[in-house]
UniProtKB/TrEMBL annotation:
Organism: Pleionea mediterranea
Protein name: Trypsin-like peptidase
UniProt-listed InterPro entries: Peptidase_S1_PA, Peptidase_S1C
Gene Ontology MF annotations: serine-type endopeptidase activity
UniProt cross-references to SUPFAM superfamilies, sorted A to Z: Trypsin-like serine proteases
One Gene Ontology biological process: proteolysis
Length: 453
C-alpha cells in the first residue's frame, strides 16, 4: 500500500514539473513578487486616498472656518470724497464686541495723511456699508485699529495664546482685488531670516486687497495679520504679539495719529541704530582696500566681480542692505539702510578716462528709499577732499541730507566717497540711511570713515 502511494506521488511530481518546469524556490519567489506587487499597489492606493483625504479635509476646514467667521470679516474702503468712488481697499476683522477692527496701517494711510480728501467705510459680508474712524496706529509694524460707528454684532475673532508650530497649516482670510472674501490655506514657516521686525513667513498667496485680513489656525484663533507678498506663494504676516501690543497701548493713547506716527518712527529708529552700533563691524578686504564686512543679523550682504572687457576695467563690489522698510505713504518709504563698495582697476584707460568712469559711478548713486516732493525737502549737499589720519590716500566725499516735512528732525542721508590719488585704482563707497536723526547720522558717518580705508 505504501509503495503504491509513493509511485503515485512520484508520478504526480513528474507530471507537475512537465506542466510547470519551476523549482519550488522559483515558485515561491514568483508568488512573493506577485504578493509584493499587490501590496505596493495597495499602498499607493492608500497613499492616494490619504492625500485626497487630506486635501478634502483642508478644503472642508477652510470652508467651515469661512462659514463660521465671515460675519467678523470686513472690506475696508478708502473713499475719494470728490469722486465718491473707492480709492483703495483692504481687509479687516473684528477683535472685540465694541466694534473695533484690526487692519494694516497702509490700508488706511490715505485717509490718515489727507482726511480732507478721503473718508473710510467698512463693508460687511452681507453688503452693508458702515462708516469707520481710525483710533490708533502702529506705523512701524503696519497696523491700525479702526472702529465702526455702530457695532452690528457682538461676535469677534479670538487671539491665539501662542504661535503655531513650523509646518502647521494656517488660513489667510481677505478680499483679493475686490473679488469677494476668500480663504487661502498655507503653511506657517516661523519668522523670516534677517528680519528686524520679526515678520512671519507664510507659504500661501496673499494678494492685493487681502492686506489687513486675519490669519487663523484651525481653531479659528488669530495668529497674525496679512501684510505683504513677494509672489510665488511667498507672503508675510505681522506677528500676533505686535497686534497685542497695539491693543494694550493704542486704545488709551491721547496723541493724534500724526503724533503717534512721529513718536513711533523716532523710537524705532533709535532702537534700530543702537542695534547697528552694537554690531561688530568686522573689516574685510575688497581689492586693495579695507571695507566693512558683516554689520548685524538684520542686514545681509552680497557681492560680485565683473571683468568689463569692453569698458577696459575690472570691478569688484559688495552691497549690504536690510530687507524691510516702513510704509508711510504710497510714494514714501523709510527705515532703509544700504551700503555699497566698488573696487575698480584698469591698465588700459587713461587717467582722464578712468576718472570719467568714476564720475559716472558717482552720478548713478541715489537714495535707497522712495520719497515724493510732498514728503521731503530737496537734498542739501556738502563736498570736500579729505585725508584720513591713518592713510595717505585722498578721497572726494559728498554728504547730502533731506528733511521730512511732516516729521521734522528726521532725515534721509546720502554719502559718497571715492579715492582720487591711486594709479588706475579706486575705491568708491556709498551709503544711504532713511529716517535718521542728526546725532545718529553724524555718529554713523564718523564710524564709517574710520572703518573704510
Amino acid at each position: 500500500m505504501l509503495r503504491q502511494l509513493q509511485r503515485e506521488l512520484s508520478f504526480l511530481t513528474q507530471r507537475f514539473q512537465k506542466l510547470c518546469p519551476l523549482s519550488f524556490q522559483q515558485v515561491a519567489q514568483q508568488l512573493c513578487r506577485l504578493q509584493l506587487r499587490r501590496l505596493t499597489g495597495g499602498l499607493l492606493l492608500m497613499a492616494l486616498v490619504s492625500s485626497n483625504g487630506l486635501l478634502a479635509q483642508s478644503t472642508q476646514d477652510a470652508s467651515q472656518l469661512f462659514q463660521s467667521y465671515q460675519d467678523r470679516l470686513f472690506q475696508i474702503r478708502t473713499i475719494d470724497i470728490a469722486s465718491g468712488s473707492k480709492a483703495s481697499i483692504g481687509s479687516g476683522f473684528a477683535i472685540d464686541s465694541e466694534g473695533t477692527i484690526a487692519t494694516n496701517y497702509h490700508v488706511v494711510s490715505k485717509y490718515i495723511l489727507h482726511p480732507d480728501e478721503y473718508y473710510l467705510e467698512a463693508l460687511t459680508f452681507d453688503k452693508k456699508k458702515i462708516p469707520i474712524d481710525v483710533i490708533s496706529i502702529d506705523v512701524v509694524n503696519d497696523l491700525a485699529l479702526v472702529k465702526l460707528d455702530s457695532p452690528i454684532s457682538k461676535d469677534f475673532l479670538s487671539l491665539a495664546i501662542s504661535e503655531p508650530q513650523k509646518g502647521e497649516q494656517i488660513f489667510s482670510l481677505g478680499n483679493p482685488r475686490d473679488l469677494g472674501m476668500t480663504v487661502v490655506p498655507g503653511t506657517f514657516n516661523g519668522r523670516t531670516a534677517h528680519s528686524y521686525y520679526g515678520r512671519i513667513l507664510f507659504s500661501g498667496s496673499v494678494n492685493p486687497g487681502m492686506s489687513g485680513g486675519p490669519v487663523i489656525n484651525n481653531k479659528g484663533e488669530v495668529i497674525g495679520v496679512n501684510v505683504a507678498t513677494s509672489g510665488n506663494q511667498i507672503s508675510f504676516l505681522v506677528p500676533l504679539d505686535k497686534l497685542k501690543q497695539l491693543l494694550e497701548t493704542g486704545k488709551s493713547s491721547e496723541e493724534s495719529l500724526s503724533e503717534q506716527a512721529y513718536d513711533q518712527l523716532k523710537t524705532n529708529q533709535n532702537l534700530l541704530m543702537q542695534r547697528l552700533f552694537e554690531g561688530q563691524w568686522q573689516p574685510m578686504a575688497l581689492g586693495d582696500a579695507q571695507v566693512i564686512g558683516e554689520l548685524t543679523g538684520f542686514i545681509s550682504c552680497w557681492g560680485e566681480s565683473n571683468k568689463r572687457r569692453e569698458e577696459q576695467f575690472n570691478e569688484v563690489y559688495r552691497r549690504c542692505k536690510n530687507s524691510e522698510y516702513i510704509y508711510i505713504a504710497p510714494d514714501f518709504y523709510t527705515g532703509i539702510i544700504e551700503m555699497e563698495f566698488f573696487w575698480y582697476e584698469s591698465e588700459k584707460l587713461s587717467n582722464w578716462q578712468f576718472y570719467k568712469m568714476l564720475n559716472d559711478s558717482f552720478a548713478s548713486a541715489s537714495a535707497g528709499n522712495m520719497a515724493g516732493e510732498e514728503h521731503v525737502t530737496e537734498f542739501s549737499c556738502d563736498d570736500e577732499f579729505v585725508q584720513s589720519d591713518n592713510s595717505k590716500h585722498i578721497s572726494k566725499t559728498i554728504y547730502c541730507v533731506r528733511e521730512y516735512k511732516q516729521f521734522p528732525g528726521l532725515y534721509d542721508v546720502l554719502f559718497l566717497s571715492s579715492t582720487v590719488n591711486l594709479q588706475q585704482k579706486a575705491l568708491v563707497s556709498h551709503y544711504t540711511i532713511s529716517g535718521i536723526e542728526q546725532k545718529q547720522a553724524e555718529q554713523f558717518l564718523k564710524r564709517f570713515m574710520e572703518q573704510v580705508q
